[in-house]
Amino acid sequence: MQILEALALSVTYICCSAGALIQEASIHNILSGEVIIPGFPIINGGEVNPEDRGLWLIRYLTGCANHVAAGSVENANLCLEQISHLASPDGDTMQRIAAYFTEALADRILKGWPGLHKALNSTKISPVSEEILVKRLFFELCPFLKLAYVITNQAILEAMEGEKMVHIIDLNSFEPAQWINLLQSLSARPEGPPHLRITGINEQKEVLDQMAFRLNEEAEKLDIPFQFIPIVCKLENLDLESLRVKTGEALAISSVLQLHTVLAADDETQRRTSPSASNSSNSNHQQRVLLMKQRTLGEWLEKDVVHLYCASPDSASASSPLSCNLSPKMGSFLTSLWGLSPKLMVITEQESNHNGCTLMERYLEALHFYCALFDCLESTVPRASVERQKVEKMLFGEEIKNIIACEGIQRKERHEKLEKWILRLELAGFGKVSLSYNGLMQAGLLLQSYGYDGYNLKEENGCFFLCWHDRPLFSVSAWRFRT
């Protein structure tokens, strides 16, 4: 495929084009049961140019999200009907994205009828084995987790040089490959391996059992004194006394795509304690309706989409329902980790603002972020791949649904950009540690060895960003106990 053709079909390109053009559109006419968008024909099926179809899908999706935010179910339904002629979970990349965003928007609508929503979802089963499988598939199909693990391990190796007793607390323990690699590196130390303890935290006992089996097996093979301590619990419910950090141990903490889940507990606490939030679901909905009556879709898009697609300075500081100093649970959790006096803490998080206080904020940020992730799979995995479909549906699709359809304690995917994590961690007493050039080199060699095209690494102020082309998707930062 020629370069220009590839660019024209790129979802990221389509999103950027839509961001520039969508300001001209205003979904405001509902005539004879059809949604009219100025400048675009009504979709009634048939073959459509892929690039045009992508632009139509983004416009219809944005109109639908706007109607859902305003509580206009009838108009949202008409948009969903139009999208159904174009979207497909096994089509091209934009068709797939549209399928999962429409599912999320429809799920949010259905939650307005709790009985109906519960009845439709009462028989759905998600086996733990499937959850483990889809995370492993993401690990295999995209390099982001591999890169995060390589960078984390290198930082730990450097921080623990010469230490005889090392304790690692893994706040999201599910992938043995990370620590198998570290065990192999520690066994090659000139001074010999340390006594290593890993405390793994996960909600699923089955996941931790597999971790224990694989890591004990590898440690025995390498003749490394090793102990794995499983803790089955949600991160926000973790009792730090159960971590049993011993005197004389050098402590490292690793958190990969997990710390943001604690923010949900803050939202729930605020809902329970704020008098004005006792009926938050209804009041927020009413406020959205009143707001949308005062602002047209064009005004929404002029204010929000330009920020999103043009990457203005304001877009990096999209508002969160809770500012750093209004996050008591997160603040308390980070302060407790600081109290353990870690020699090193390495944090990997999504580099996007999916914790905005309005649906439209979250929808627009999520659309741009997941367009890039779906583009990643499109570049390396065939469309007919069952593994790709599982990652898109069971991982990306469920994350999108959580961001769009859920509120309160149920909304776990509260991704925020590194700048907010820096503020939180500094308030808790941590000092930033610059990640080393060796870590960057090793991550770069990993990309080269797998032949990944389109993926990039960027260093900024001692932190690393894992990028798809020029767009940062994940950040890795390192921290230490500061007195």
Can you walk me through this structure?
- The structure is a single chain.
- The chain has 483 residues and is an alpha/beta fold.
- It contains 18 helices and eleven strands.
- The strands form two sheets. Strands 3, 4, 5, 6, 7, 8, 9, 10 and 11 form a nine-stranded mixed beta sheet that branches.
- It is globular and about 65 Å long.
- Mean pLDDT is 82; it is low at 1-9, 16-41 and 275-325.
> What percentage of the residues does DSSP assign to strands (E)?
5-15%
Order of helical and strand elements: HHEEHHHHHHEHEHEEHHHHEHHHEHEEE
Number of helices: 18
Mean pLDDT: 82
In a nutshell, what does this entry contain?
With 483 residues, the chain is of the alpha/beta class. It contains 18 helices and eleven strands. It has helices at 3-9, 11-21, 50-70, 73-84, 93-110, 114-121, 128-141, 144-159, 176-187, 205-222, 263-273, 280-294, 297-310, 328-339, 359-380, 386-405, 418-427, 437-450, and strands at 29-31, 34-36, 165-170, 195-202, 226-232, 250-256, 344-350, 430-433, 455-460, 463-468, 471-481.
